[in-house]
């Protein structure tokens, strides 16, 4: 009897980093060692790209109980595209402290602002002006919730889990999908979620997105400056978790050309008067103000003045056209979406769908407050330093 030859099973070698293949059990042996009351503090800051994060650690003799207990530090700005080598020292000013999900209690993660040698904010320190604006509008009690989309890539830059020399099936079964043929990298997503909860980041949800290997997590509600602080720390934790798994998380707004969804950072927003009964009229008034300042917002909603978003905001794939402002109830193809429940209740919040995945949340939330509460118009911003 003739037997057909057995074909060898085709194996797909996932593109992961060499470091992720190190023996993690060996690492655990050292991580369990006692610290004799001393504490490891990891300082985290935004680098000169306005998108990347950097970190370094130091030892404190006792556990800091508040951000005031964490001393300022410094770093070499010439190695982070933030200073010249001849005058490279930059200051790290601690602003927000979290528990460390990697080294565990009592160790800390500390988010920092970056100041130049003359104590002026570095060019990518957008928190500095955001904090001033948020202090001015504190009586309006602005709440934000930001939906951070991202895409998992192999170390070779190709979407994680995609065929090496092709594409997965068309979009449709992947959004909030379940099953090995529909989602890629759930272990990473769930590890990031737990790490954020442990750290004290106000993460409130996650889901698989429309494009395979694309995911989203949500942070909020956060009031004022807290929104930027918590989203930046959530991003740092995401990159660190991905480092452990040997893959890369990109915030590129359009990582794959063609008939694939891009990645945004939809921003949900309300003030106290919008959240009260009859607040819909205040929501509509804010949207009217935003409609008259569309170009300004597009310029600050990605780190390249709108050039990144121009690849994403095409009017297709659940986006609005970058050149046109639009708003509607339950309309995911509009610049601004009013949730259907808000339209029915007559109060609540609205969603600005224009910010790119790689936006700076400090810039986004500051711009929204300048337009809707401080009533700024045009493309110029007002300096409130002397007020």
UniProtKB/TrEMBL annotation:
Enzyme Commission code: 6.3.1.2
Gene Ontology MF, one: glutamine synthetase activity
InterPro entries (alphabetical): Gln_synt_N, Gln_synt_N_sf, Gln_synth/guanido_kin_cat_dom, Gln_synth_cat_dom, Gln_synth_gly_rich_site, Gln_synth_N_conserv_site, Glutamine_Synthetase
Keywords, sorted A to Z: ATP-binding, Cytoplasm, Ligase, Nucleotide-binding
UniProt keyword RNA-binding, yes or no: no
Domain GS catalytic: 126-387
Name this protein carries in UniProt: Glutamine synthetase
Occurrences of domain GS beta-grasp (ranges): 39-119
Organism field: Cyanistes caeruleus
Localization, UniProt: Cytoplasm
Cellular component annotations (GO), alphabetically ordered: cytoplasm
């Amino acid at each position: 009897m003739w037997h057909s030859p057995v074909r060898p099973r085709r194996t797909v070698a996932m593109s992961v980093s060499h470091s992720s293949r190190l023996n993690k059990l060996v690492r655990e042996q050292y991580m369990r060692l006692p610290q004799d009351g001393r504490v490891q503090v990891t300082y985290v800051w935004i680098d000169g790209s306005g998108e990347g994060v950097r970190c370094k650690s130091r030892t404190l003799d006792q556990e800091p109980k508040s951000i005031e207990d964490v001393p300022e530090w410094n770093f070499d700005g010439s190695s982070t595209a933030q200073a010249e080598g001849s005058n490279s020292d930059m200051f790290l000013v601690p602003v927000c402290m979290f528990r460390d999900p990697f080294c565990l209690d009592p160790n800390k993660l500390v988010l920092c602002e970056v100041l130049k040698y003359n104590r002026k904010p570095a060019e990518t320190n957008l928190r500095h002006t955001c904090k001033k604006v948020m202090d001015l509008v504190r009586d309006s009690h602005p709440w934000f919730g930001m939906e951070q989309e991202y895409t998992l890539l192999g170390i070779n830059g190709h979407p994680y889990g995609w065929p090496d020399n092709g594409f997965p099936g068309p979009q449709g079964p992947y959004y909030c999908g379940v099953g090995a043929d529909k989602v890629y990298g759930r272990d990473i997503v769930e590890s990031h979620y737990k790490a954020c909860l442990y750290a004290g980041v106000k993460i409130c949800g996650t889901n698989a997105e429309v494009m395979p290997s694309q995911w989203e997590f949500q942070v909020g509600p956060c009031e004022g400056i807290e929104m930027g602080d918590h989203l930046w720390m959530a991003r740092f934790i995401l990159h660190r978790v991905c480092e452990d798994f040997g893959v890369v998380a990109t915030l590129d707004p359009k990582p794959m050309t063609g008939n694939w969804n891009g990645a945004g950072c939809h921003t949900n927003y309300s003030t106290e008067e919008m959240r009260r009964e009859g607040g819909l009229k205040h929501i509509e008034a804010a949207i009217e103000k935003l409609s008259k300042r569309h170009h300004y917002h597009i310029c600050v909603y990605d780190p390249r003045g709108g050039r990144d978003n121009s690849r994403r905001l095409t009017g297709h794939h659940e986006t609005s056209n970058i050149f046109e402002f639009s708003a509607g109830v339950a309309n995911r193809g509009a610049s601004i979406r009013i949730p259907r429940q808000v339209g029915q209740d007559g109060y609540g919040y609205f969603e600005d769908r224009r910010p790119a995945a790689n936006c700076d949340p400090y810039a986004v939330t500051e711009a929204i407050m300048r337009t809707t509460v401080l009533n700024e118009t045009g493309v110029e911003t007002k300096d409130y330093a002397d007020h």
